[in-house]
Amino acid sequence: xxxxxxxxxxxxxxxxxxxxxxKWAPGSWAKAAAYNATKPEVxxxxxxxxxxxxxxxxxxxxxxxxxxxxxxxxxxETMLTFLPEEEPEDKNEEKETxxxxxxxxxxxxxxxxxxxxxxxxxxxxxxxxxxxLARARRTPSPKEPSPYADFNLT
Length: 154
What we know:
The chain is α+β, with helices and mostly antiparallel strands. It has helices spanning 3-18, 28-38, 57-64, 105-114; strands at 43-48, 72-76, 97-104, 115-124, 127-137. Strand 4 and strand 5 (127-137) form a beta hairpin. Residues 1-25 are annotated as: Disordered.
């Protein structure tokens, strides 16, 4: 093979590789958007009453600036286990019920940013989930901006 032919082929191959191409099949983005539109919004539990700074769901609505009062359900605290066995039940001990409100993921992240607290494990819609137990309002540091300041889920 002559030197000129090799250079010509190499140049055309380099030019072909440098041309922008969409690596996704036509319609892939539309299919992904349609799939995500059918998925329900992620809901996160927040403890109301008890040791929480939120005495009522209205308090939570006011702090998170929600358009309506969030739905409140009664549940019990549990333990996070990694075994497939059933949760051990102590028949002599009655479990304390907690009021839990469910809010969207964006509001949940904002709430964790403006309050100090801890996560506890509760039964939430038939599953073990981590719930936020807000214990105090957090004062923002003027030096440190919020890590979620530019994060928008909507």
